[in-house]
């Protein structure tokens, strides 16, 4: 799946979301899922963006075993941040997090959590693809985006018709409110809360079609422009 990322109608970046072949990790059968964003056009002259967010999702449970990110530090064209969230290594209410800047030594930044199930951004999208519930149904999740944890309150808004580059499609819309958390699970200081919405196609493909989100610079829209369905054998009927 390929998306165009826009701010106030100005194209900033492209984003791809790809599903890999089944493999093994930590003794489990997993499927790698990767999001990759790169800035495009004139946006390249402002800052460097070439970031990857990779999850290994347990085939049996649909939960993330490991979440790994590689991204340019904010405002830098040279410093690259590497983070590993070892969700399978959870010990009680603590998830091991490793952070490394460029080629420096890894630094442990353990994250306290409060919920039984912890997600990352990729597995959140996969979960929403499978969530069917009446309008108004809501839940609260804890989700890693990069090495930071966010509390996400998400609600089923309902069914809509959405016009995209692929045509007008039936969609199920989810609205969410996000609060960034610190390492102890409290609200991260001096960080505004965010609202965002996600549209998933209301058909047998269940394809993420569009995301809109608040930022410090205005509302960003991420809209699908290309979809190539998988050709591999289904793991389940």
Description:
- The strands form two sheets. This protein has a 16-stranded mixed β-sheet that branches. A two-stranded antiparallel ribbon has the order 8-11.
- It starts with a strand and ends in an 11-residue tail after the last strand.
- The protein has one domain.
- 4% of the residues lie in helices and 56% in strands.
- It has one helix spanning 121-130; strands at residues 2-7, 10-19, 23-25, 28-39, 50-58, 64-72, 80-85, 94-95, 97-101, 107-108, 111-112, 118-120, 138-145, 148-164, 167-180, 194-201, 208-215, 218-226.
- It has 237 residues and is mainly beta.
Summarize the structure.
The protein contains one helix and 18 strands. It has 237 residues and is mainly beta.
User: How many extended strands?
Assistant: 18
Q: Please write the string of helix (H) and strand (E) elements.
A: EEEEEEEEEEEEHEEEEEE
How would a textbook summarize the main sheet?
A: 16 strands, mixed
Count of DSSP-assigned helices: 1
| Rg | 18 Å
Distance between the ends: 22 Å
| Total domain count | 1
Average of per-residue pLDDT values = 91
Structural class, by secondary structure, is mainly beta
Low-pLDDT residue intervals, each spanning 5 or more residues: none
What share of residues are in beta strands? over 45%
Helix content: under 10%
Overall shape: globular
Oligomeric description of these chains: single chain
């Amino acid at each position: 799946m390929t998306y165009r990322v826009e701010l106030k109608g100005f194209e900033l970046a492209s984003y791809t979301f790809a599903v890999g072949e089944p493999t093994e990790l930590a003794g489990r059968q997993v499927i790698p899922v990767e999001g990759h964003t790169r800035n495009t056009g004139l946006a390249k002259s402002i800052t460097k963006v070439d970031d990857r967010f990779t999850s290994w999702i347990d085939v049996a449970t649909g939960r993330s075993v490991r979440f790994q990110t590689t991204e340019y530090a904010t405002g830098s064209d040279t410093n690259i941040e590497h983070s590993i969230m070892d969700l399978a290594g959870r010990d009680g209410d603590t998830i091991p997090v490793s952070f490394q800047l460029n080629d420096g030594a890894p630094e442990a930044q353990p994250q306290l959590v409060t919920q039984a199930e912890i997600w990352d951004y990729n597995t959140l999208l996969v979960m929403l693809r499978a969530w069917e519930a009446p309008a108004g149904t809501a839940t609260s999740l804890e989700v890693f985006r990069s090495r930071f944890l966010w509390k996400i309150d998400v609600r089923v808004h309902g069914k809509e018709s959405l016009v995209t580059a692929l045509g007008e499609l039936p969609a199920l819309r989810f609205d969410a409110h996000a609060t960034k958390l610190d390492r102890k699970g409290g609200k991260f200081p001096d960080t505004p809360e965010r609202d965002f919405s996600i549209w998933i196609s209301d058909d047998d493909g269940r394809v993420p079609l569009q995301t809109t989100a608040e930022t410090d610079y205005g509302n960003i829209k991420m809209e699908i422009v290309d979809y190539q369905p998988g050709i591999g054998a289904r793991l389940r009927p």
